[in-house]
């Protein structure tokens, strides 16, 4: 149970493959976290479309609340939710959900970036939003609904980004949170509101954008009475923490000063800088870099890179072929494999959602005139080396645009556990890498809740708390000449993507 000097928060951290409820306990100037409830997540495919099963996810969340009350008692100081970006739900006038929200990999957006660019020039879209072009962006998803004459747009009164949908289920209040809204490519950072002019040019209805946009660390409302009765909890504030998972992860980076970059490493790799104002220039557009909202009035100047998803999907296919296979097994095979057989461009469209990732890797190598990896170890090593080389390629562009070099690269998230990738990243970039904490997203979620309730005074104080509470690993660059030679060879492929 909770003592007088103990404060507890519950972070719901929903990822593309799983969700969990994580309890954070603030006690004696340290933060402890414990996973309370984990549950699977993933697309539900029906003829022609991919969706998220949001009602099942919410059921799992209420189960976590019941488990919390059973284990810790009635008192809970806050609930926060973070999810992936770009996806959204539509609500009818009566507040009801209009269909299951689509998955960002749904094929309805195929070709839609090009169609949208026929109506509005790409430069104009970027000038209005500062967001990189990806067919999974909210803007492109909604535009595809316009192009397909979806009746849901006529019925919709409110658009809620994914974490805000679950906040609505918990509180009955409709708001959207800044960090997640900025992933949509529908928000204008210069005006601080939706990019209405752009949306009207694309024939996207704007009446549904009526929900207030709140800053990270805002108390949205209290848990609804029927949920307190169902779960056994007392009155609990629901907090818009940093609702986009990368924003939460970056909030928890144990860094000081300005000469650092971050890499949120997991299914996706999000590599970037924390900056006071968005950088919206022709070079940013050319490099397809993005400006997403951060905490404390900052922006996350970053690049989305297809990350460990390529390894995850390969593992899934190999397990179907020959049974269980651990990531440790794959790492060992990669460690022993021949280095630098080939280099991939991780963001090539062929890797967006291929039915067979290993085969897609092999075919990419053949199509680009390279020797193709053959064994599982060679394939995994090829992916990890390619990611590390891509990180250097992106980081160099960002350093040029900011006009200032980076001294340290902080890696946070589940990818921290891939020590081979961490070392490769130090080798490729020539930077010191500080890896950890692993659970940065849940920690940042909890940290922003504690700021909202006044238990932590500031972002800087929260980062100091993270540094005291969690271990990190440091990686120094090795074999720099060998990696530099590999990088120079790889630039013909990596630079072509720009």
Q: What number of domains?
A: 2
Task: Determine and state the CATH class of the largest domain.
Answer: Alpha Beta
The residue fraction in helices comes out at: 40-55%
Q: In total, how many beta strands?
A: 21
User: Sheet with the most strands?
Assistant: 7 strands, mixed
Mean of pLDDT: 96
- Biggest sheet: strand arrangement: 17-18-16-15-19-20-21
**How large is the count of helical segments?**
19
**CATH topology grouping of the largest domain:** Nucleotidyltransferase, domain 5
The CATH superfamily of the largest domain is: ATPase, nucleotide binding domain
The span between the termini is 54 Å
Radius of gyration: 22 Å
The SS-based structural class is alpha/beta
Q: Give the low-confidence spans.
A: none
The CATH architecture category of the largest domain equals: 2-Layer Sandwich
Strand content: 15-25%
Principal-axis shape: globular
Which keywords apply here?
498 residues, alpha/beta, Nucleotidyltransferase, domain 5, 2 domains, 7-stranded mixed sheet, 6-stranded mixed sheet, globular, kinase, rhamnose metabolism, Carbohydrate kinase, FGGY family protein, FGGY_C
Can you tell me about this structure?
The chain is α/β, with parallel strands linked by helices and 498 residues long. It has two domains: 6-240, Nucleotidyltransferase, domain 5, CATH 3.30.420.40; 253-436 and 457-498, ATPase, nucleotide binding domain (Nucleotidyltransferase, domain 5). 41% of the residues lie in helices and 21% in strands. It contains 19 helices and 21 strands. The protein has helices spanning 54-72, 112-119, 122-129, 138-147, 152-155, 162-171, 178-181, 196-201, 225-231, 245-251, 282-287, 309-322, 327-336, 357-367, 376-402, 419-429, 440-453, 459-469, 480-494; strands at residues 6-14, 18-27, 30-40, 44-46, 49-51, 79-82, 88-91, 158-161, 175-177, 187-188, 193-194, 212-214, 218-222, 237-240, 260-265, 268-275, 290-293, 299-306, 408-412, 432-435, 473-475. Strand 2 (18-27) and strand 3 (30-40) form a beta hairpin. The mean pLDDT is 96. Residues 10-250 form the Carbohydrate kinase FGGY N-terminal domain. It comes from Vecturithrix granuli. Residues 261-452 form the Carbohydrate kinase FGGY C-terminal domain. Belongs to the FGGY kinase family.
């Amino acid at each position: 149970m909770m003592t007088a000097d103990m404060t507890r928060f519950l972070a719901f951290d929903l990822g593309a493959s799983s969700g969990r409820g994580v309890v954070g306990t603030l006690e004696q100037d340290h933060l402890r976290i414990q996973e309370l409830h984990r549950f699977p997540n993933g697309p539900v495919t029906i003829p022609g479309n991919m969706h998220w099963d949001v009602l099942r996810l919410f059921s799992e969340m209420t189960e976590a609340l019941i488990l919390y009350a059973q284990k810790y008692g009635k008192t809970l100081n806050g609930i926060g939710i973070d999810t992936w970006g770009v996806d959204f739900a539509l609500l009818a006038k009566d507040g009801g959900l209009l269909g299951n929200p689509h998955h960002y990999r749904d094929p309805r957006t195929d070709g839609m970036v090009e169609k949208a660019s026929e109506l509005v020039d790409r430069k104009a879209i970027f000038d209005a939003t500062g967001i990189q072009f990806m067919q999974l962006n909210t803007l492109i998803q909604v535009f595809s609904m316009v192009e397909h004459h979806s009746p849901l747009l006529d019925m919709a009164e409110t658009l809620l980004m994914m974490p805000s949908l679950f906040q609505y289920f918990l509180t009955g209040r409709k708001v959207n949170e800044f960090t997640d809204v900025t992933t949509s490519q529908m928000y204008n950072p210069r005006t601080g509101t939706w990019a209405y002019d752009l949306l009207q040019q694309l024939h996207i209805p704007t009446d549904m954008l009526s929900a207030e946009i709140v800053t990270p660390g805002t108390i949205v409302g209290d848990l609804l009475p029927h949920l307190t009765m169902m779960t056994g909890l007392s009155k609990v504030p629901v907090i818009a923490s940093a609702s986009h998972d990368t924003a939460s992860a970056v909030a928890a980076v144990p860094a000081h000063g300005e000469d650092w970059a971050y890499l949120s490493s997991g299914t996706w790799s999000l590599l970037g800088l924390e900056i006071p104002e968005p950088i919206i220039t022709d070079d940013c557009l050319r490099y397809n870099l993005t400006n997403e909202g951060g905490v404390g009035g900052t922006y996350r100047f970053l690049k989305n890179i297809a990350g460990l998803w390529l390894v995850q999907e390969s593992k899934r296919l190999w397990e179907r072929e020959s049974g269980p296979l651990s990531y440790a097994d794959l790492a060992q095979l990669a460690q022993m494999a021949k280095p630098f057989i080939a280099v991939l461009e991780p963001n090539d469209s062929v890797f967006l959602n291929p039915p067979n990732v290993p085969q897609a890797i092999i075919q990419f190598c053949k199509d680009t005139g390279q020797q193709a990896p053959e064994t599982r170890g060679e394939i995994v090593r090829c992916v990890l080396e390619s990611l590390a080389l891509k990180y250097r390629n992106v980081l160099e562009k960002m350093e040029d645009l900011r006009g200032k070099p980076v001294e340290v690269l902080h890696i946070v998230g589940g990818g921290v556990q891939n020590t081979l990738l961490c070392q490769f990243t130090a080798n490729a970039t020539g930077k010191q890498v500080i890896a950890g904490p692993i659970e940065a997203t849940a920690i940042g979620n909890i940290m922003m809740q504690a700021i909202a309730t006044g238990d932590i005074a500031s972002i800087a104080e929260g980062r100091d708390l993270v540094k005291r509470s969690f271990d990190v690993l440091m990686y120094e660059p090795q074999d720099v000449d060998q990696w530099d030679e590999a990088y120079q060879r790889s630039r013909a492929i990596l630079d072509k993507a720009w």
